[in-house]
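Q: Given only this backbone (428 positions), what sequence would you predict?
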């Protein structure tokens, strides 16, 4: 029996979960956190910093690591994208000093995406497809440029969007399927393996589409709009609308991301009177599992916008960036493990390195900062849950003859229903 073949061995994985629950008391006595300082590692400075604070054109709207972690892409403002080898050397922190590629896009860059990419679980079951590494770039004029990373040459230009392309993501199944989200109120699905093929267009939202995310099994697209108080779920297999995740109160939606197993969908939103919310939904049942709210003590709660969020590829860590700080929430242990970058001029985007340990943030002034992430060893329970939940839905789990405690754990219903994430200053 191959223990990694979870699609055909549910019983094996369930037995592992049972054993893990029994071992919980033993594991709790072992320190699962490798103590390291989680501070600033490095910083990239733009070649043309803004003359005045708040001046447009210099913002770093997107930062991305390549799927294998060997490259870093930085939209450094003024229509330029930098491609650097990772890890950085001492010379890399000064623009123009390293072996880098500069891509002149001649338009404001809103979105970056490396492809093809493959989720961790898919990599266990499939042979990686031999495609050259590409970098897709979404521009202010609605054009998507696709560049070859190894050569720095433009491979293809995709047209069709009538407004800025705000987000891009490749399907995590190793294919060249690219999903784009735009201010023209549509999402488009491109197959880059088929030259000249027309994209599938997803219509429905009445507002700008800000962010999109694809589930790890490449079956579902989640998207959010700026003034729309609901989340859209689309089928990537049939290119049709599936359902809404609806809020009872008016919200401005900021970002979305799936967890490593696809069983959680994180949504960032904010409102002028209630501040920001960070919600974890079950995308299968449309059930809101937990809501984390901004620090209720802070005087700037009403204008503290949540700008981005990202699940870590290692463990159950959720990073989010607001106007006040970069924070990383360990959802499994229900605690903040990082609260740093306390700068109200700070970042608008963040991205984890695929191997963990580092997170990058992009700033409004064009800078990029790299922060050390605490090294957490995922528990045996959580690793078993990821392997199982990647393959089966919530409904299938609930149909299994399992004790209530294990069912709650496998469906993430054991996490707190509501909590307030206090800032470092007001931490209780």
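A: Predicted residues:
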């Amino acid at each position: 029996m191959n223990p990694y073949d979870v699609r055909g061995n549910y019983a094996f994985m369930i037995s592992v979960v049972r054993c893990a629950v029994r071992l919980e008391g033993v594991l709790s006595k072992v320190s699962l956190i490798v103590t390291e300082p989680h501070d600033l590692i490095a910083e990239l400075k733009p070649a043309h910093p803004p003359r005045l604070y708040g001046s447009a054109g210099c913002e770093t709207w997107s930062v991305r690591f390549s799927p294998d972690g060997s490259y870093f892409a930085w939209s450094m403002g003024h229509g330029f994208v930098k491609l650097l080898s990772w890890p950085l050397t001492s010379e890399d922190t000064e623009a123009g000093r390293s072996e880098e590629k500069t891509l002149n896009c001649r338009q404001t860059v809103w979105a970056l995406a490396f492809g093809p990419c493959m989720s961790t679980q898919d990599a266990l079951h499939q042979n990686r497809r031999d495609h050259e590494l590409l970098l897709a770039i979404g521009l202010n004029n609605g054009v998507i440029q696709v560049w070859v990373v190894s050569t720095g040459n433009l491979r293809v230009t995709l047209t069709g969007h009538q407004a800025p392309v705000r987000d891009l993501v490749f399907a995590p199944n190793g294919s060249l399927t690219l999903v784009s989200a735009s201010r023209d109120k549509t999402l488009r699905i491109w197959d880059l393996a088929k030259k000249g093929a027309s994209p599938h267009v997803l219509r429905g939202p009445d507002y700008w589409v800000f962010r999109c995310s694809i589930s790890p099994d490449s079956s579902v697209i989640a998207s959010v709009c700026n003034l729309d108080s609901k989340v859209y779920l689309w089928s990537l297999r049939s290119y049709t609308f599936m359902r809404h995740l609806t809020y009872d109160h008016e919200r401005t939606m900021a970002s979305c991301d799936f967890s490593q197993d696809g069983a959680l969908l994180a949504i960032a939103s904010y409102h002028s009177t209630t501040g920001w919310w960070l919600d974890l939904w079950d995308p299968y049942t449309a059930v809101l599992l937990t809501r984390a709210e901004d620090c209720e003590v802070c005087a700037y709660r009403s204008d503290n916008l949540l700008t981005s969020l990202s699940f870590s590829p290692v463990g159950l860590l959720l990073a989010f960036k607001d106007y006040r700080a970069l924070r990383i929430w360990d959802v499994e242990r229900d605690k903040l493990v990082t609260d740093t970058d306390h700068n109200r001029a700070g970042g608008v985007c963040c991205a984890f390195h695929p191997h963990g340990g580092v997170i990058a943030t992009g700033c409004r002034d064009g800078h990029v900062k790299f922060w050390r992430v605490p090294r957490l060893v995922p528990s045996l329970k959580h690793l078993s849950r990821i392997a199982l939940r990647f393959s089966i839905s919530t409904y299938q789990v609930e149909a299994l003859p399992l004790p209530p405690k294990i069912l709650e754990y496998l469906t993430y219903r054991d996490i707190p229903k509501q909590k307030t994430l206090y800032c470092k200053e007001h931490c209780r």
